[in-house]
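Input (structure):
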C-alpha cells in the first residue's frame, strides 16, 4: 500500500484508505453505528469505498458482496477485508450499481452510503467526486439505485440507504413505497450548514 494512505479506526476495526478512495466520514460512521445485520444473512454493500460497511457486516453475515464503480476502492476494500480477517466471507466486484450482479441473485440486506450531494455536472469527473456528487438534485445515483434494488431483495429483505436532507428524503421514501417497500427513518444526524444526514430503511 502507498505511504499516502490514511488510517481510519472504528471500534476494533482498522481501515487503510488509499488515494482516490472516499475516507469514512460522519455518514459512514452514522451508518456503521446503526448497522444491524442478521446472523447468517447475505449482504450487498453497494459503493463499498474502503469497505467499512461490508467489513463490519461480514462479522455476522454468511457472505458479503461489495461493489464499487471506482477500481481503487475495490482494491482498497479487498485489502482491508484481509487486514480485518473477513476476506473469506467477502466477494469484491467492480462496476456500476447492479450491473455486475447476476440477475436472480438476491440479498437479505442491501447497504448504500450513496453519492447524495447536489453538484455541478463536472464534479463527478474524479473518483473522489464520484463518491459524493449526486448531480443537480443530488439524486442521480439514488434514483437509479431505488429503481433496481427491489429486484435484488429476498422476501423479508431490507435496504439501508444514507443520504442528506439536501437531496429530498421524502422523494426517496415515496419512490421506495412506489416499489412496494415499507419505509422508515432509522436515525438522523444534523451537520453544520443546514444539512442532516438520514439513514433510511426500506423493507418488504
Ligand atoms: C459516500 S461514498 C461511501 C463509501 C463507503 N461505503 C463509506 O460508507 O465510507 C460512495 C461510494 O459509492 C461509490 N459509487 C458512486 N457511484 C457508484 C455507482 N454508480 N456504482 C457503484 N458504486 C458507486 C463511490 O465510488 C464511493 O466509493
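Output (sequence):
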Amino acid at each position: 500500500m502507498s505511504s499516502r494512505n490514511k488510517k481510519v479506526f472504528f471500534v476494533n476495526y482498522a481501515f487503510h484508505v488509499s488515494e482516490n478512495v472516499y475516507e469514512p466520514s460522519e455518514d459512514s460512521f452514522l451508518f456503521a453505528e446503526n448497522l444491524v445485520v442478521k446472523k447468517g444473512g447475505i449482504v450487498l454493500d453497494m459503493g463499498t469505498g474502503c469497505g467499512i460497511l461490508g467489513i463490519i457486516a461480514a462479522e455476522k453475515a454468511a457472505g458479503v458482496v461489495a461493489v464499487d464503480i471506482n477500481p481503487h476502492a475495490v482494491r482498497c476494500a479487498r485489502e482491508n477485508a484481509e487486514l480485518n480477517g473477513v476476506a473469506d466471507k467477502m466477494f469484491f466486484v467492480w462496476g456500476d450499481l447492479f450491473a455486475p450482479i447476476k440477475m436472480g441473485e438476491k440479498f437479505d440486506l442491501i447497504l448504500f452510503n450513496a453519492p447524495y450531494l447536489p453538484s455541478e455536472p463536472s464534479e463527478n469527473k474524479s473518483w473522489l467526486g464520484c463518491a459524493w456528487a449526486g448531480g443537480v438534485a443530488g439524486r442521480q445515483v439514488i434514483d437509479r439505485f431505488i429503481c433496481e434494488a427491489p429486484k435484488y431483495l429476498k422476501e423479508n429483505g431490507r435496504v439501508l440507504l444514507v443520504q442528506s436532507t439536501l437531496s429530498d428524503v421524502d422523494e426517496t421514501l415515496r419512490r421506495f413505497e412506489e416499489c412496494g417497500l415499507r419505509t422508515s427513518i432509522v436515525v438522523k444526524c444534523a451537520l453544520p450548514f443546514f444539512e442532516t444526514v438520514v439513514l433510511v430503511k426500506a423493507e418488504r
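Notes: The chain has a mean pLDDT of 96. The first helix runs from residue 26 to 33.
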